[in-house]
Amino acid sequence: MAKELSTSGLTHNSISTGTVIKGNISASSDIRIDGTLEGDLDCRGKLILGEKGVITGNVTAVNAEIMGSVTGNITAEETLVLKATSLLTGDIEVSSLVIEPNARLNGKCSMRSFSR
């Protein structure tokens, strides 16, 4: 008998290692990037940038967890987490910021509350 799969209804977008996208991305849900994005990202969910992931452009997300490299500004309405392997060259605007030891941030940080 075939098994019926049930989903939570949540969608997850993924860009794999070795994939290069040139252009802007607008995601209405969570997205994981292990490849390269050359353009801006507007994510209405959580961004996870893997260790090999690279973004050259500005990022807007509700939450973001960065393990790779970003050259551009990041706006996170809730929490931005910079993991130990991250390299961020750009300014950030966040409500909450977590920086692990060895994470590298080259830019200015502004902390504020976002209204919805």
Walk me through what this model shows.
The chain is an all-beta fold and 116 residues long. The chain has one domain (13-97). Helix content is 0%, strand content 57%. It is built from no helices and 14 strands. It has strands spanning 12-15, 20-22, 25-27, 30-33, 36-38, 41-49, 54-56, 59-66, 69-71, 74-82, 87-89, 92-99, 104-106, 109-111. The strands form 2 sheets. Strands 1, 3, 4, 6, 8, 10, 12 and 14 form an 8-stranded parallel β-sheet that branches. The chain starts with 11 loop residues before the first strand and ends in a 5-residue tail after the last strand. 27% of the residues are buried. Belongs to the bactofilin family. This is Polymer-forming cytoskeletal protein.
Which SSEs are present, and which pair or pack?
Blueprint: E1 12-15, E2 20-22, E3 25-27, E4 30-33, E5 36-38, E6 41-49, E7 54-56, E8 59-66, E9 69-71, E10 74-82, E11 87-89, E12 92-99, E13 104-106, E14 109-111
Parallel strand pairs: 1-4, 2-5, 3-6, 4-6, 5-7, 6-8, 7-9, 8-10, 9-11, 10-12, 11-13, 12-14
**How large a portion of the residues is in β-strands, by DSSP E?**
over 45%
Number of domains: 1
Number of strands: 14
The largest sheet is:
8 strands, parallel
Q: Assign an overall shape.
A: globular
Structural class: mainly beta
Query: Helix and strand string, N-terminal first?
Result: EEEEEEEEEEEEEE
Low-confidence stretches: 1-8
Q: Number of helical segments?
A: 0
Mean pLDDT across the residues is 91
State the end-to-end CA separation: 47 Å
The value of Rg in angstroms is 15 Å
* Proportion in helices: under 10%
